[in-house]
From TrEMBL:
GO terms for molecular function: nucleic acid binding. Signal peptide: none annotated. This is Tc1-like transposase DDE domain-containing protein. PANTHER family: TRANSPOSASE. InterPro entries: RNaseH_sf, Tc1-like_DDE_dom. Transmembrane segments: none annotated. Residues 37-188 form the Tc1-like transposase DDE domain. It comes from Stylophora pistillata (Smooth cauliflower coral). The lineage of its organism: Eukaryota, Metazoa, Cnidaria, Anthozoa, Hexacorallia. Pfam families: DDE_3.
Length: 311
């Protein structure tokens, strides 16, 4: 047993009704693709002052210093976050409200990323908490309709469940950055917040651990061998390690086709199980020989000596 800081759990969160709503929420989001889920939340930011709290003075005399800054103005961060990082954010002077919420999403639904994809695409889901003005008499139906017209679903978190919103982790990182850069936070608060959001990368959002750059060799079944440079990334869904690469071999001649299988009697029975080859499709991910779970052989088709085999 060790001494730890006690985390307070609201009594209401343990009531049967709230537990049931939390389980329903988990059942709903478990069917969603992680890349289609976007969390939204707001957080207030009070400007730090850069004034020292402690100083030196002769014994028996108080310590004085001319006050540098007296501002304690509050800003509000509106943040939309997904596994790909911060999709959209803005900074308001003062508190937020229902009108600002609608203006935020009116802009968000029209945003396009650098790669040409929309920040909010059809089939995506936006999750937010139960803040009072989120359920405003006019705000909630207008926001629901606005998102539905773009094919986006609005889903509210169950009560007393802030852990289901990833924006909370982002706000922690943002405020830590502001504490470490107090002068910038005081003089250019909005710029400092935008700068902090740049540190919330896709790797951090997906909880990956990225190692230092290193050189390695990449070889394929066609005996091609190239030297590459990239990072090892752990903590991915495949329960393995990814190695970043600026370019990978794209020899599509190694991809088996139905036409090729029909030439060999021992492969003809699996011809219909081979998907058609997309000649225009890109190759962005290669599975190496080191993750045995992904390469486990479930069925095997062998033939005469020198003939291709399938597994």
């Amino acid at each position: 047993m060790t001494k730890k800081k006690i985390q307070q759990i609201p009594l209401e969160s343990q009531r049967s009704g709230n537990i049931h709503r939390r389980n329903e929420f988990l059942d709903t989001i478990s069917d969603l693709e992680p890349g289609t889920v976007h969390c939204f939340d707001e957080s207030s930011v009070v400007k730090t002052t850069c004034n020292r709290k402690y100083g030196n003075a002769p014994r028996g005399e108080p310590a004085f210093e001319i006050q540098r800054y007296a501002s304690s103005a509050t800003n509000t961060i509106n943040l939309l976050h997904s596994p790909f990082g911060v999709g959209f954010m803005n900074v308001l002077k003062g508190p937020s409200n229902g009108q600002e919420l609608l203006l935020f999403f009116q802009e968000a639904v029209n945003l396009i990323r650098a790669d040409g994809s929309a920040v909010l695409e059809r089939g995506d889901t936006v999750i937010m908490d139960n803040c009072g003005f989120h359920h405003g008499h006019f705000v909630e139906p207008i926001l629901t309709t606005l998102l539905a017209n773009c094919g986006v679903r609005l889903l509210f978190q169950p009560p007393y469940s802030p852990e289901f919103n990833t924006c909370k982790l982002c706000f922690h990182d943002i405020k830590e950055f502001l504490r470490q850069n107090q002068r910038l936070a005081e003089e250019e608060t909005a710029y400092a917040i935008y700068e902090a959001c740049q540190n919330i990368t896709q790797q951090k959002s997906m909880n990956k651990e990225v190692g230092p750059p290193e050189k390695y060799y990449l070889s394929t079944c066609s005996t091609e061998r190239e030297q590459k440079c990239g990072h090892r990334i752990t903590g991915v869904a495949a329960q393995s390690t990814l190695i970043e690469c600026d370019s990978i071999p794209k020899a599509k001649r190694e991809i088996p086709t139905r036409e090729m299988a029909r030439r060999f009697p021992h492969l003809q029975e699996i011809t219909d199980e081979i998907p058609p080859c997309d000649s225009a499709g890109g190759i962005h991910f290669l599975i190496g020989r080191d993750p045995p779970k992904l390469l486990k052989v479930r069925e095997f088709r062998n033939g005469p000596k020198g003939a291709p085999w399938a597994q």
